């Protein structure tokens, strides 16, 4: 399944009754929702499941910048009001990345190719305006956990979280053309054009840490299992 | 550390945001489609502990939107401020939806009845009677919470693998100092809330025995797997 068909399956994911609206207006008035207001950008890109890189998804990141070296993103499967919250991605500078433990670094992916190839876009923002941020992002690393696998038709978020990887310019990491075409059609953009023009000028990082994109050099991917254990407790449960 | 919970707020390493970056971000926010984020209308404060370790407890600020009457998706921050760190997410579903889950999925989900009736789950800034209108619904729901950032152990970055979280199910679990700290910061009294909520009822079918980690505990584990074989030619989907 290349992605959710917006015409039909939005209605069923998730299942449930239509909302009663009244009190929600009141809530919004009384509460300030500050962290949400700090989301300053929408980016659209692609990601691949680490444990099965044949499964690729279009993602919508809503990005908050914490400081020059750190971004946090709420990730949805669509940018319309029915978008499902499918996970969270953290983005850090190369400076912060180099200070991580090598075992931790394995869980992260690089962004250089995604940016240079035009796969990562800021919809409705002219390339020139987005340029400084793209240059910054090209040198970053991301850690992306997916908690709802809507691409395989899950109507509810099932199972343990999945680690996601970024597109890379080698076999397993290549995004299927049809996925890109569908995205480009929606936003009336051309990823091909971007590569040839604006993105060409963005500097490649001098070096990408080989612990990132771990699968590329090691052929190993990651999965999360959940095991039943005895909860450490100081009071009865449940 | 038993008996003492350090409610740490991470100091994320990094340089302060550059002006050019900040200006760009203001520009982009006005142009772009923030569909799913605009649906977030509600701030709930509650407590979570790790599904493998009740002694590690965290104050959790949920920012929630309804997909429909039976389903909410929430972003979780360590505090409800501009610099709140995105530490996790939670899905909240009606009992009806919960009962449709496969049995091996049900343990991920915790009940809300105790924390709602106990007063521990509340909506900062919203008067009691208005809160109650919504919380009486929340009282009957189940939640699936995943945290990605273990701030309680002082991590200044989101390290390690995702953690399944559980919620309060009876008296004696919540650390008194955590409770008092939240009460004083938000100007509320859990005891008073408990009185207001005495009329509320939990799930119609009672607390499902497979919910709340099936009464035991859950632990996530990272597994290395061989990457799935490459397809020689990317297929084109219609």
UniProtKB/TrEMBL annotation, chain A:
It comes from the Eukaryota. Belongs to the OBAP family. Residues 1-14 have a biased composition (Basic and acidic residues). Transmembrane segments: none annotated. This is Oil body-associated protein 2C-like. InterPro entries: OBAP-like (IPR010686). Residues 1-21 are annotated as: Disordered.
From TrEMBL, chain B:
It comes from the Eukaryota. InterPro entries: OBAP-like (IPR010686). PANTHER family: OIL BODY-ASSOCIATED PROTEIN 1B, PTHR31360. Belongs to the OBAP family. This is Oil body-associated protein 1A-like. It comes from Coffea arabica (Arabian coffee).
